[in-house]
From TrEMBL:
Gene3D superfamilies: 1.10.8.50, MutM-like, N-terminal (3.20.190.10). DNA binds at Q70, R125, N169. This is Endonuclease 8. InterPro entries: DNA_glyclase_Znf_dom_DNA_BS, Endonuclease-VIII, FPG_cat, FPG_N, H2TH_FPG, Ribosomal_uS13-like_H2TH, Znf_DNA_glyclase/AP_lyase. The gene is nei. Its EC number is 3.2.2.-, 4.2.99.18. Residues 2-91 form the Formamidopyrimidine-DNA glycosylase catalytic domain. HAMAP family: Endonuclease_8. SMART domains: Fapy_DNA_glyco, H2TH. GO terms for biological process: base-excision repair.
């Protein structure tokens, strides 16, 4: 399943394709959404927000399309009036004069207004998004030490969207490696310096992945994103030279360096 950085990059591409142009077509597969179609023609998509793994497509008439791709949903960008040759089920089609964005296979799709958005069950349950630039290290540290999360092992905590939204399995492994921590720790057991380093890694790793994943070093000042432990079992740790190990943790594969993670 894609994690926050990959979902935000998809949202960036969708925004570039559709934002700020009058909609010429709005089509929804689900009968309960059909009644909204005419009211969206001539309106614009103003922004596509990501909240963890959910996408919020904000329209200029105040409505918001909520979609969560779960395991199967996928977005495509095409020229208007283009059909894709696919066996996937089309669920949403939004078009302007220049582009159309298509959502296939997702089943978790709703149209919300400001009131229903504010009380949406998924959105009210998830924690702050790691890619939200308003979120800072002090707030993450405070959240780690809160009564709700301070006794939770990092192995499960980092996969729980109620703690921080947008993290997933590769980020869990890479964050713990950067902070030099084993996943059995709980926030209440760490020193202040460890907590600070961990809080910094919880934000810096996903943000670096968002900016740099898939880019090549020669085109950028900043180093390209590379996995340090994820899918690197049997290889040497670039920090200490110890061989990276692989196991299972909270039912998901986990990768770590036994040499420098403590
Ligand atoms: Zn190491």
């Amino acid at each position: 399943m894609p994690e926050g950085p990959e979902i935000r990059r998809v949202a960036d591409k969708l925004e570039a394709a559709i934002v700020g142009q009058p909609l010429t077509e709005a089509w929804f597969a689900f009968p309960q959404l059909k009644t909204y179609e005419p009211s969206l023609i001539g309106e614009q998509v103003q922004a596509i927000e990501t909240r963890g793994k959910a996408l919020l497509t904000h329209f200029s008439n105040g409505l918001t399309l909520y979609s969560h791709n779960q395991l199967y949903g996928v977005w495509r960008i095409v020229k208007p009036d283009t059909e894709l040759n696919t066996t996937r089920q089309l669920r949403v089609r939004l078009a302007t004069a220049g582009n159309a964005i298509l959502l296939y296979s997702a089943s978790d799709i709703e149209l919300l207004n400001a009131d229903t958005l504010a009380v949406h069950p998924f959105l009210t349950r998830i924690g702050p998004d790691v890619l939200n630039s308003q979120l800072n290290v002090d707030e993450v540290k405070e959240r780690l030490l809160s009564p709700r999360f301070r006794r939770r092992q990092f192995s499960g905590l980092l996969l729980d969207q109620a703690f921080l939204a947008g993290l997933g399995n590769y980020l869990r492994a890479e964050i713990l490696w950067l902070a030099q921590l084993l996943p059995q720790h709980r926030a209440q057991d760490l020193s202040d310096d460890q907590l600070t380093a961990f809080s910094e890694a919880l934000l810096s790793v996903p943000r670096h992945a968002y900016r740099m994943r898939g880019t090549m070093k020669k085109y950028h000042e900043e180093a390209a994103f590379q996995f340090e432990v994820f899918h690197r079992q049997g290889k040497e740790c670039r920090r200490c030279g110890t061989v990276i190990e692989k196991g299972t943790l909270s039912s998901r594969p986990f990768y770590w360096c036994p040499g420098c993670q403590r």
